[in-house]
Write a structure and sequence with these properties.
The complex is a heterodimer. Chain A is an alpha/beta fold. Chain A folds into two domains: 132 residues, Aspartate Aminotransferase, domain 1 (Alpha-Beta Complex); 239 residues, Type I PLP-dependent aspartate aminotransferase-like (Major domain) (Aspartate Aminotransferase, domain 2, 3-Layer(aba) Sandwich). Chain A contains 13 helices and 13 strands. The chains are: A alpha/beta, B alpha+beta.
Chain lengths: 388, 124
């Protein structure tokens, strides 16, 4: 059976060149980068090379502004908590959006329990915040804005350059969870006035368990993890050198070929959307039609529940994901789609198709062939389906 | 995610008794789109015994498999027996359900009880 992986916003297959770049750090260059001897110095050299590769991809002013972490979730926790606590003397108000990843939302909820006030900005039908509303929400005690660059479920891109401008005008720290946008769309921390940015390796063909936090020079932030002097004293713990070397390589590839490849991915994505539109009635695209990640299409199949669709697709070898309640474990459909004002009945039937460099036209045509009978079969079973 | 049993997948792929019964003896509809499951169950009763059962379900794999298994089990039962059918017996017949999906079986039993109530109310 053909296998088609369309769940690349969840994770990606590691690039063969990334795998190759990592192997020496398990076999030969196994030193601890903090050690004085040659083994350590060699590892340190590669650690710093990777730091430079990451810095270059996001146009950081200096590699020192990159702190390696265990991934996107840690970076979000680090950015939000360590800056909120560092700025507690100035104020305790944080602004975020209602469509953030749980790594941000639940961190904000945690801070609410410890004396912070959090404003959750709503979004429009496409999932974008209103910069005007953001501006009006800033008060004298606002210290931090944390708004994602692009949404993981719908791919909708936030107006981060406007957000960055407002943040610098008001003297507020701007953190962005850029896990989904880095490597898929141009992302420039300097141009967009970003102080803190969370990055993850495994979304861009790198290994799992590695990420980074960009910390602009001069940004007030507490040490995240206590221990030794690693990562400029900001995040203690021996660095995951093999993973970091892979992350560096993944960033280098994203920088040299990534955006070019994304144009091809977008073509496939649009071919998929069009193919579904032509062959299946009563569907809707969730997210912004244009201001969207080139690899993401979130489509609702009306009158159906998403898990039954992805389970059926899985039986055909096609991997996707859904914002339905049944897979969240919470018995509530996606908070992102809900915030966009999509009725629960239609949010339940959402399927996220997220593509990668590995997908081909044949993959897409296979999905377009297999999907319509699945939808047809499930709709015949649905008590809410009114017919065509 | 926790895996579905083979039995669940069998009933998901080839559900039994999909559809509706014209002039049913009883009909039960439960659930709502917010929680993600809506089940509609129809029963045909003759001489106090369920001779046919059909369903239509909006829901996940477990909800569809539960509906299918439930209708299979209910057929041939007396109204009294069907009224005592527990969600656990459906879960057992399906070779187990992931913990987060147990509520699907509860919903199935509720649909059956509603259909029986509907039947009883028509009798009186």
């Amino acid at each position: 059976m053909r296998k088609v992986y369309l769940d690349s916003n969840a994770t990606t297959q590691v690039h063969p060149e990334v795998v190759k770049a990592m192997i020496p750090f398990y076999e030969e260059i196994y030193g601890n980068p903090s050690s004085v001897h040659g083994f350590g110095r060699e590892a340190k050299k590669h650690l710093e090379k990777a730091r430079g590769q990451v810095a270059e991809l996001i146009n950081a002013a200096s590699p020192d502004e990159i702190i390696f972490t265990s991934g996107g979730t840690e970076s979000d926790n680090f950015a939000i908590k360590a800056s909120a606590y560092a700025l507690k003397g100035k104020g305790t108000h944080i602004i975020t959006s209602s469509v953030e990843h749980h790594a941000v939302l639940n961190t904000c909820k945690y801070l609410e329990k410890t004396g912070f006030r959090v404003t959750y900005l709503g979004v429009d039908e496409y999932g974008r915040i209103d910069p005007g509303e953001l501006k009006n929400s800033i008060s004298g005690d606002t210290t931090l804005i944390t708004i994602m660059s692009a949404n993981n479920e719908t791919g909708t891109i936030m107006p981060i350059s406007e957000i960055g401008k407002i943040a610098s005008e008001k003297g507020v720290v701007f953190h962005t969870d850029s896990v989904q946008s880095v490597g898929k769309v141009p992302f420039d921390v300097q141009k967009n006035g970003i102080h803190l940015a969370s990055l993850s390796a495994h979304k861009i063909y790198g290994p799992k368990g590695v990420g980074a936090l960009y910390i602009r020079k001069g940004t007030e932030i507490l040490q995240w993890q206590q221990g030794g002097h690693h990562e400029q004293g900001k995040r203690a713990g021996t660095e995951n050198v093999p993973g970091i070397a892979g992350f560096g390589k993944a960033c280098e590839l994203a920088n040299s070929q990534g955006l070019k490849e994304c144009a091809g991915i977008k073509k496939l994505r649009d071919r998929l959307h069009k193919g579904i539109e032509t062959n299946v009635k009563q569907i809707r695209l969730n997210g912004h039609p244009e201001e969207r990640l080139p690899n993401t299409a979130n489509i609702s199949f009306d009158y159906l529940e998403g898990e039954s669709i992805i389970l059926s697709l899985d039986l055909e070898g096609i991997a996707t994901s859904t914002g339905s309640a049944c897979t969240s474990g919470s018995l509530e459909p996606s908070h992102v789609l809900e915030s966009m004002g999509i009725e629960p009945l239609f949010a339940q039937g959402s399927v996220r198709f997220s593509l990668s460099i590995y997908n081909t036209e044949e993959d897409i045509d296979y999905v377009i062939e297999k999907l319509p009978p699945i939808i047809d079969r499930l709709r015949k079973m649905s008590p809410v389906y009114p017919g065509d | 995610m926790e895996e579905y049993s083979e039995k669940v997948m069998e009933h998901f792929k080839n559900p039994k008794n999909v559809g509706e019964i014209k002039d049913p003896s009883g009909r039960g509809k439960v659930g709502n789109p917010v929680c993600g499951d809506i089940m509609e169950l129809y029963i045909k009763v003759e001489n106090g015994t369920i001779v046919d059962a059909k369903f239509r379900t909006f829901g996940c794999g477990a909800a569809i498999a539960t509906s299918s298994m439930l209708t299979e089990m209910a057929k041939g039962m007396t109204i009294e027996e069907a009224g005592k059918l527990s969600n656990q017996s459906i879960v057992d017949a399906l070779g187990g359900l992931p913990k987060v999906k147990i509520h699907c079986s509860v919903l199935g039993v509720e649909a059956l009880h509603k259909a029986i109530d509907d039947y009883n109310s028509k009798l009186s």
